[in-house]
Amino acid sequence: MILPRKITRETGATVFDTGRRRAVCVTVDPPAGLVTFRLKGTRRTYALPTDWLYKEACQRHVARERQKRMAERRRRRGAP
């Protein structure tokens, strides 16, 4: 199912910016294939393509799993 319009939601995540903690707002724009981030109460937005976000999430997951596997291997071999 493809969403017909933009959907904006305020997340539970906060970031300290210009003297206060601000909530992170996320906008999903399916027709454009973008996910946009901004801090609540600000106008500056950061847009990223949806396909890039997916690839980045996959790469980070693979790197994290590889790191765990290597740490386990080092622990078993007794290396520092």
What features would you describe in this structure?
This protein is an alpha+beta fold and 80 residues long. It contains one helix and four strands. The protein has one helix at residues 50-77; strands at 7-17, 20-29, 34-39, 45-49. A four-stranded antiparallel beta sheet has the order 1-2-3-4. The chain is flat, with a radius of gyration of 18 Å. The N and C termini lie far apart (51 Å). The model has no long low-confidence stretch (mean pLDDT 92).
Features of the shown structure:
single chain; 80 residues; alpha+beta; four-stranded antiparallel sheet; 1 helix
- Helix fraction? 25-40%
Strand order of the main beta sheet, please? 1-2-3-4
- Terminus-to-terminus distance: 51 Å
Mean pLDDT over the residues:
92
Share of residues in strands: 35-45%
Number of helices: 1
| Series of secondary-structure elements, N-terminal to C-terminal | EEEEH
Write down how many β-strands occur, each being a DSSP E stretch of 2 or more residues.
Answer: 4
Largest sheet: 4 strands, antiparallel
Assign an overall shape. flat
Summarize the structure in short:
The protein has 1 helix and 4 strands, in the order E-E-E-E-H. It is α+β, with helices and mostly antiparallel strands. The protein has a 4-stranded antiparallel sheet.
SSE topology:
Blueprint (H helix, E strand, L loop, with lengths): L6 E11 L2 E10 L4 E6 L5 E5 H28 L3
Antiparallel strand pairs: 1-2, 2-3, 3-4
